[in-house]
Design brief:
It is a single chain. By secondary structure, the protein is α/β, with parallel strands linked by helices. It has one domain (23-151): Immunoglobulin-like. The protein contains three helices and eight strands. It has helices at 2-22, 125-129, 133-151; strands at 25-33, 39-43, 46-49, 54-58, 67-68, 88-91, 96-101, 111-116. The strands form two sheets. Strands 2-1-4-6 form a four-stranded mixed beta sheet, with no helix packed on it. It has a four-stranded mixed beta sheet with strand order 3-8-7-5, covered by helices on one side.
């Protein structure tokens, strides 16, 4: 009886460990200037990940944060709001697009886009239209990058 219980427990533990081992943690830097010279950027600004993966947003330069953009994440997903100058790790469990911002630099176009799995829907265009001009333009670029990445063989 004890051997059977131990074997069953060991199997359950192995199953749990294998699912957590498969999840990846990605890093996104919050920068005053990215590697191409563009100011106030996340790098990478667009990233595609699998459901269950996490992203750690790293304030490489000061005065940045990461925060979900209202209305621009999947309906059942949990929003996040990091503090200025602090690292934050966010888990992405729902498939879809997640748009996010640096709160102090939104008007300067500091936005990013995460694609989790294969999204069923595009971003809400009405919510995108409410963004400041530079943020809307940058997010439009990132959506185009996501579309071209999904078309690649």
């Amino acid at each position: 009886m004890k051997k059977e219980f131990f074997a069953a427990s060991l199997g359950a533990a192995a199953l749990l460990m294998s699912s957590s081992v498969m999840a990846e943690d990605h890093q996104v830097q919050m920068l005053n200037k990215d590697s191409t010279g563009r100011t106030m950027q996340f790098e990478p600004a667009f990233i595609k990940i699998a459901p269950g993966d996490t992203i750690t947003f790293v304030p490489t330069d000061k005065t940045h944060n990461s925060e979900a953009l209202p209305g621009l994440i999947p309906e059942n997903a949990e929003a996040w709001k990091g503090k200025i100058n602090q690292e934050i790790t966010v888990s992405f469990d729902e498939a879809g697009f997640y748009a996010y911002k640096c709160t102090p630099h939104l008007a300067m176009g500091m936005v990013g886009l995460v694609q989790v799995g294969e999204p069923m829907e595009d971003l809400d265009s009405a919510a995108v239209e409410k963004l400041p001009n530079k943020a809307r333009e940058r997010l439009t670029e990132l959506v185009a990058e996501a579309e071209s990445a999904s078309e690649a063989p």
